[in-house]
Specification:
By secondary structure, the protein is α+β, with helices and mostly antiparallel strands. Helix content is 31%, strand content 25%. Strands 1-2-3-10-5-8 form a six-stranded antiparallel β-sheet, with helices on one face. A three-stranded antiparallel β-sheet has the order 7-6-9, with no helix packed on it. Strands 4-11 form a two-stranded antiparallel ribbon. The radius of gyration is 19 Å and the shape is globular. Residues 51-55 and 77-83 have low confidence and may be disordered.
C-alpha cells in the first residue's frame, strides 16, 4: 500500500473518540483508521487519558444487580472493534453495509456509480465509483464533506488523493475531482448538507441521486 499523506485532523479525531460524530462521518473515519497506522496511534493516545481517569477514580460500592444491568447494556451498546486488514477493497467497518458478492451500485451517468450506505436528515454516506479520467461535476459545499479513497486515486484543486487518503471539504472549497489514470477510483464519502453544483444538469439530477 502506498503511504497515506492526508490524515484526520486531531480535533476531528477527538470528536470521533468521544462519540460526538453521527454515523456517516464516524463510518468514514473508522474506515480511514482501519487503513492508517498513524491515525490509529493518535486515536489511542486521545483515548488513553479517559482510561487513566477511570483507573484512578475512587471506587464506589455497587450492588451485583446494578453491575449486571450496566454490563448488559454495555454489551448491547458498544460496537465491535474493527479488524484492521489493509488487503481488502472494503475494510472491516464497511462489512455491514457492503456485500462484495452482490454490490448495489446505481448508475449516475458517464460510467459513474454510487451506493448509498446510510442516509438520514442530518447526513449521508455513500460509495462512489468513478472510471479513470472521469470528472465529477464542478461543485461547492453547503457543509462538510469527507472523502476517503479506497481504490485508485483522484486529483482536484487541492492535490492528489490515493488509497487511504482523506479529503476534508467545507463551504470554502469549490472543486472538480478527476479520477486519476489506472484503476477506477472508488471513494467513501460522507456529507452533512447537499452539494452545490454549478451546472444546470447536475442540479436537476440532484434530487434523484440524493446528493
Amino acid at each position: 500500500m502506498t503511504p497515506i499523506h492526508h490524515h484526520i485532523p486531531e480535533a476531528l479525531l477527538a470528536d470521533y473518540a468521544r462519540g460526538a460524530l453521527d454515523e456517516a462521518f464516524s463510518l468514514v473515519l473508522a474506515t480511514h483508521i482501519s487503513l492508517c497506522d498513524q491515525c490509529r496511534a493518535t486515536l489511542g493516545a486521545l483515548e488513553a487519558p479517559g482510561g487513566v481517569l477511570l483507573e484512578e477514580a475512587a471506587a464506589a460500592p455497587v450492588s451485583d444487580a446494578a453491575k449486571a444491568a450496566v454490563l448488559a447494556q454495555l454489551d448491547d451498546a458498544l460496537p465491535q472493534q474493527p479488524v484492521y486488514r489493509k488487503d481488502r477493497l472494503y475494510p472491516a467497518p464497511l462489512d455491514e453495509f457492503v456485500n462484495d458478492d452482490n454490490p448495489r451500485w446505481s448508475k449516475m451517468g458517464g460510467g459513474v456509480k454510487q451506493m448509498i450506505l446510510t442516509q438520514n436528515a442530518s447526513s449521508s454516506a455513500r460509495l462512489l465509483y468513478i472510471p479513470a479520467g472521469q470528472a465529477v461535476p464542478d461543485h461547492g459545499h453547503n457543509g462538510m464533506e469527507l472523502t476517503l479513497v479506497l481504490q485508485g486515486a483522484f486529483v482536484d484543486e487541492t492535490g492528489t488523493y490515493a488509497k487511504g487518503d482523506l479529503e476534508i471539504a467545507d463551504s470554502d472549497l469549490e472543486h472538480t475531482p478527476v479520477a486519476a489514470p489506472g484503476a477506477p477510483c472508488i471513494c467513501l464519502a460522507a456529507t452533512d448538507a447537499a452539494l452545490r453544483f454549478n451546472s444546470l444538469i447536475p442540479r436537476l439530477l440532484q434530487p434523484i441521486f440524493r446528493i
